[in-house]
Queue: 2 jobs
Job 1
Amino acid sequence: MTSHPSSPLPLSGSGANDGFHPALPRTPGRPAAHAHRKVHHIPADQLDADTAQTGGMRRFAAISGASVGSERMWMGQTTVAPATSSADHHHGSSETAIYVVSGHPEFVFLGVPDGSGAGPEEVRLRTGPGDYIFVPPFVPHREENPDQDEEAVVVIARSTQEAVVVNLPGLYVLE
């Protein structure tokens, strides 16, 4: 057995405590307290499609309050079919981080007017595999996949326990 420099507890590759931290205190009255005492593995074929959805895309939950007892984050995967746009939406008070796995999705929102009297302009962020996107809370946006043949796949992490999605009739500038 070895020890991590910042931990007084020995680390082991296998044994009775795999996935568990025996030094964590129990929290009375906390639902699913046992869920916070182990590391969770969610296999790719067990993602949950029963989560908030927006037309034109499919979200699959991996990490959520329901799946692992998370309290401050949601994480999952989204796919956008070829030649498809999602509906306009925002994610409430959630901060959203996106990692592009495959395809070349575009993230569309309205930019702040420049004071010239012209209205807000549509802004398109063109991405590719390995790119990251950050969407602040309440910012209306949509995802588009202009590729005629390839599906776009992204991994999403949110700062809320569940997949907050507010579908909108159109984009607008967040004041």
Note: The longest helix spans residues 65-68.
Job 2
Amino acid sequence: MPKVYIINTNKSHNPNAENDMLNNMKCAAYYSHWKHYIDTIEANDIVYLYSNGVGIIARGIATGIVEIDDYNGEENEEHYMHLDRFEKMNKPLTAEKFTNILTMATSGDQNKQYKIQWNQTMILIAYSLGLKVWQEITKHHI
């Protein structure tokens, strides 16, 4: 079964990384051990790109083909994957709204807030929950 990933665009550590991902319709991670996270993404997984302080800024479907490139003059330090059906958000989906969607899908009780630690390179969420987010984005953010 496909999975759903949230990939942090790394703009805090490298402002160029986010633009590169958006312009080249890909998800990416850099340097050990983070770069190897991209290697676990498989074909047809859903990928959301998350920008710190902004929210979900793009989405796509993983091709399953990991590519490796040099990064900042260092050999093989970028692992990336192009995303099919890539779309940038007209209006970002905030972390709060994303969390609320997951909360309502899991418990329906706003007092039992779904917890996500947003400051990670890659976050895995359940496929059924990721589809709820996909639907919200389709209705209100594209």
Note: The CA atoms of residues 34 and 121 lie 7 Å apart.
